[in-house]
Fold:
Amino acid sequence: MLAQLERFKGYLVALGAALALALGAYLRGRSAGKGAERQRRAAEVNEQAAQARKEARDVQLETARMGDDAVAAELERDWVRGPGTGRR
Structure:
């Protein structure tokens, strides 16, 4: 009877160790996944920022080459709201 109890304790210890290892592997993988996602998102944000800087630089160069009247006409054409239909 005592031998069976000792064997049962051994099984419980082994099961506990296996569960602890599985939990540790899960948590480590989850942490690594979060880190990879953070890096991917940071790279994506940096790419978007670089694209925005390039577009701003292109607009500055384009407007620097244009005359004042051409810039004013471009702004009126693209930025000023037209007469519309009168409804909201």
Summary: The chain is about 85% helix and 0% strand. The mean pLDDT is 87. The first helix runs from residue 2 to 65. The radius of gyration is 33 Å.
